[in-house]
Amino acid sequence: MMGSNSGQPQFIASTGNRSFSNAPLIQNADTNQIVVPDRKSWKNFFAYMGPGFLVSIAYIDPGNFETDLQAGAQYKYGLLWIILVASCAALVIQSLAANLGVVTGKHLAEHCRTEYPRGPNFVLWVLAEIAIVACDIPEVIGTAFALNMLFNIPVWIGVLLTGLSTLVLLALQQYGVRKLEFLIAFLVLTIAGCFFAEMNYAKPVASEVLDGLFVPQLKGNGATGLAISLLGAMVMPHNLFLHSALVLSRKIPRSVRGIKEACRFYMIESGFALMVAFLINISVISVSGAVCNSSNLNQEDRDSCEDLDLNKASFLLRNVLGSWSSKLFAVALLASGQSSTITGTYAGQYVMQGFLDLRLTPWIRNMLTRCLAIVPSLIVAIIGGSAGAGKLIIIASLLEYKEVNF
Questions:
Q1: Does a structural domain hold residue 6?
Q2: Rounded to whole angstroms, how far apart are CA atoms 336 and 186?
Q3: Per-residue DSSP letter, 295
């Protein structure tokens, strides 16, 4: 029951000083698109499910875990409200990005190339690539940490393995976007299951969690700086390019009703995926806050809480809650790091193709975008070890924040 293409309205691009009145924006002839039936039914919602989970993984990547752990360790539940505000803003921004792709048939990077002169367009591309690398570095290092926790693999070798495994998993693209979406959704639910189990181990006080969630406060000398890092980890500029492109994997009816339905269902789907990501971030902060503010900590564990990173968190959880808690954390970190590196590389492909109109072989594009994040991560891991890699995550989160404000 697919709608006919005859008589469909064409959306015309506004190109600044240049006007191409005969250039349609809707020009998707991708045979791999998922066809949405031209019918008015709530069952169409299932055809739209998928892109939101690929987008949501950026909000629960290792960079988020790092800042979440420190926020809980130093200020208990006092910074939870920042996660709530950032998650609400994320839903609005991601919905707008999805609507752009649905209505126009082109993703954000393609619009930038069309609307801006060559010079500003090149600057925007450079800034977008820097933002992607800043987002990707914590993901690569976090995956390497997880491999070290589970299998005692050195961090620098874990960085190399992360790049290789990402390229292998991205090969799923040739079997259709649905396979990749199912994989990412499975990994997101794995992360959620692990941290909800951690919550059961840690048993944070519900009333204190709710107070931190709905009562804004910045108490302490370093609260403002950590709040900025927490916000920076929740700011994902590459997600705007990614979400506006992922929605193009669906062939929707090109009618007013069909477009409105697609925008509505994508917003609902994004809301559900971001809600899962929101609950995971709340769980990480709550577990860290409960563990580091426990009265049963010895002096060594208290020292770890003062400068808590991904690597120390595993040992802390093992000492306080038991070995199973440490393993659950490592599994969640591995799922988070691996899935976020996949989506980060995916976003890099769309940015490169959209801004520069480069038609490269997929594996070459994947290799280029992987190397941009792996090279600095590998250098820091070799020179600075686990401690240096952990500090690089915080620096990358601050860089994301500054890039967006710029």
A1: no
A2: 11
A3: T
In tens, the pLDDT along 77-92 reads: 999 999 999 999 999 9
The pLDDT of residue 209 is 93
Strands 34-35 and 250-251, sheet pairing:
parallel
CATH number at residue 375: 1.20.1740.10
Q: Is residue 44 within 8 Å of 262, Cβ to Cβ?
A: no
Alpha helix stretches (DSSP H) within 219-322: 223-234, 237-246, 256-292, 299-306, 310-320
Total structural domains within the chain:
1
Instruction: Tell me the C-alpha distance between 242 and 352, whole Å.
Output: 12
- pLDDT higher than threshold 70 for residue 180: yes
Nearest alpha-carbon partner for 134 in 377, 379, 387: 377
Residue range(s) defining the domain that contains residue 51? 42-404
Which residues make beta-bridge pairs with 24?
12
Residue 242 tokens read as 């990614």
The whole-number average pLDDT for the span 63-90 is 91
Q: What is the separation of C-alpha 320 from the centre of its chain, rounded to a whole number of angstroms?
A: 30
Q: Is the pLDDT of residue 262 over 90?
A: yes
Would you say residue 12 lies in a domain?
no
Q: b or e along 150-163 (b: 16 or more beta carbons within 10 Å of the residue's beta carbon)?
A: beebebbebbbebb
The answer to whether residue 260 sits within a structural domain is yes
Residue 378 in any domain: the answer is yes
Q: Cβ-count burial of 306 within 10 angstroms (0-12 exposed, 13-18 middle, 19+ buried)?
A: exposed
